[in-house]
Specification:
Layout (H helix, E strand, L loop, with lengths): L4 E5 L3 H14 L1 E6 L3 H11 L3 E3 L2 H6 L5 E4 L6 H10 L3 E4 L7 H14 L3 E3 L3 H4 L1 H9 L6 E9 L17 H18 L4 E7 L4 E4 L2 H6 L20 E4 L5 E8 L2 E8 L11 E5 L2 E5 L6 E6 L2 E6 L9 H15 L7 H20 L3 E2 L2
Parallel strand pairs: 1-2, 1-4, 2-3, 4-5, 5-6, 7-12
Antiparallel strand pairs: 7-13, 8-11, 8-17, 9-10, 11-12, 13-14, 14-15, 15-16
C-alpha cells in the first residue's frame, strides 16, 4: 500500500489521540488545521506535520494534500465534507455525518457527484474483525428476536458542544451512533423507532479550552487515556441536549433496544451487546475485547484470539481502508449512502425522543 498524503482538519482530542499519531507513522502527514492556531502549531510539532493552517480553505487548496480527515466540531462536519468533495479531496468524516437529514443528503449527493472516496465514521461495524465475526455468527442463532446494545460513559470533558442541542446533539450523535451503525449493518433499516430521552445532569463541567490546547505537548502522552488526563474540568456548562437515551428499533416483530448515555460512571456490568434468536444467543462482553460468547440449543462456546483476529482502533482501520480504496479505485464500505441511512435512523431517534411519538422508517 502506498503512502497517502493526508491533511487533518481539527486538532482536538480525537485527532491527537488517534488519527495524527497513526497517519504520521504509516502515511504522510502534510498538514494540520484548526481555528485555534496554537492547537494546529502544537499538533504539527508533536506529530511532524509539514504545514499548519487556521483556515480550512487553505488546506483544501493545498495541492499536496490528497485526502483529508474531518475531526472538527459536529456542526461543521457536513459543510467541510461538501468542501472536500468540491475540491476533489478524498476524505474520512467523523460522526455524525450531519446534524440533520438535509445536511447528510447534501454530503451524499455532492460526494457521489464528485467521485471522491469517502469513509463515514464510525466504520467499526464494517471493518472491525470482531464485528465481522459477530455478523457471521448471526445465522447460527436463528431469527433475530430481540437484542440489547449499550454504549455509555461518564461524559466528555474536552468540549461544551457535546451538551449543546444545536451544536452537538448530545449522546445520540456522540454515542448512540455506534449502536445505530451496528444494528443497521446487521439488520438493515428498522420499520419503526420509539425513543425516550432525558437530561440527567443539567450542569456539566468541561476543561477550559486553553488548558486543552496547552496539553498538546510531548510529555502528556502515554500517561493516561487522553493527553489532558491530568487537567480537571472546571467550566460549568448548561446541558440542553439529552445525556440519557433509550431507543427501541422494530424489525419485523424483533425489537432492538439501544441504551446510550453520559451517565455510566463505572465499568459496565452487563455485556455491551446481547443478541437473542430463535435458536440461541450471542453476547459480546466488551466491544474493545476480542471475545464472543455463543449459545445454540443449550451448548455454549467462547470465541477469542485468533478466532476473531487482532483488534485495532477503528480510526486506524478507516485510514487504511481509505488508502486501499484510493489505491485500488474501489468504493469504501462505510460509504456516503451507508452513512446517510445511519443518519436517517439517528434523526428518527431524535425526533421520537423529542415528540414522544413513534417514527416509521420503511
Amino acid at each position: 500500500m502506498r503512502k497517502i498524503s493526508f491533511g487533518v482538519l481539527g486538532c482536538g482530542n480525537v485527532a491527537n489521540n488517534y488519527y495524527l499519531p497513526y497517519i504520521a507513522r504509516v502515511h504522510r502527514l502534510v498538514a494540520v488545521c484548526d481555528v485555534i492556531i496554537e492547537r494546529a502549531v502544537r499538533s504539527a510539532e508533536l506529530w511532524g506535520a509539514e504545514k499548519w493552517y487556521d483556515d480550512s480553505e487553505k488546506l483544501f487548496k493545498d495541492e499536496e494534500v490528497e485526502a483529508v480527515v474531518i475531526l472538527t466540531s459536529f456542526s461543521s462536519h457536513a459543510r467541510l465534507a461538501v468542501r472536500a468533495a468540491e475540491e476533489g479531496k478524498h476524505y474520512i468524516l467523523q460522526k455524525p455525518m450531519g446534524l440533520n437529514l438535509k445536511e447528510a443528503e447534501e454530503v451524499k449527493d455532492k460526494t457521489l457527484k464528485s467521485g471522491v472516496k469517502a469513509v463515514i465514521e464510525p466504520s467499526e461495524p464494517l471493518l472491525s474483525p470482531l464485528m465481522r465475526k459477530l455478523k457471521g455468527l448471526l445465522p447460527e442463532i436463528g431469527k433475530h428476536s430481540f437484542s440489547i446494545w449499550h454504549t455509555g460513559h461518564g461524559g466528555p470533558t474536552w468540549s461544551a458542544d457535546f451538551f449543546d442541542n444545536e451544536k452537538g446533539g448530545g449522546v445520540i450523535n456522540d454515542l448512540m451512533v455506534y449502536d445505530v451503525t451496528r444494528t443497521f449493518t446487521f439488520f438493515g433499516l428498522p420499520k419503526k423507532i420509539a425513543a425516550q430521552g432525558s437530561i440527567f445532569m443539567p450542569v456539566r463541567y468541561v476543561i477550559p479550552p486553553e488548558k486543552v490546547t496547552e496539553s498538546i505537548r510531548k510529555d502528556t502522552y502515554g500517561r493516561g487515556v487522553y493527553y489532558f488526563h491530568d487537567v480537571k474540568p472546571s467550566v460549568p456548562v448548561q446541558v440542553t441536549a439529552y445525556d440519557n437515551v433509550v431507543a427501541v428499533l422494530e424489525y419485523d416483530g424483533a425489537e432492538a433496544t439501544l441504551i446510550s448515555n453520559f451517565t455510566t460512571f463505572t465499568r459496565l456490568k452487563m455485556p455491551s451487546i446481547q443478541i437473542y434468536g430463535s435458536r440461541g444467543s450471542i453476547a459480546v462482553p466488551r466491544v474493545f475485547e476480542a471475545q464472543i460468547k455463543v449459545e445454540v440449543n443449550g451448548k455454549m462456546k467462547k470465541l477469542g484470539g485468533k478466532e476473531i483476529g487482532k483488534l485495532r482502533k477503528y480510526y486506524e482501520l478507516s485510514v487504511d481502508h481509505l488508502a486501499e480504496c484510493i489505491e485500488r479505485d474501489v468504493d469504501p464500505a462505510p460509504s456516503v449512502e451507508w452513512g446517510f441511512n445511519v443518519t436517517r435512523v439517528l434523526a428518527a431517534i431524535n425526533e421520537s425522543a423529542k415528540t414522544g411519538k413513534a417514527i416509521s422508517i420503511v
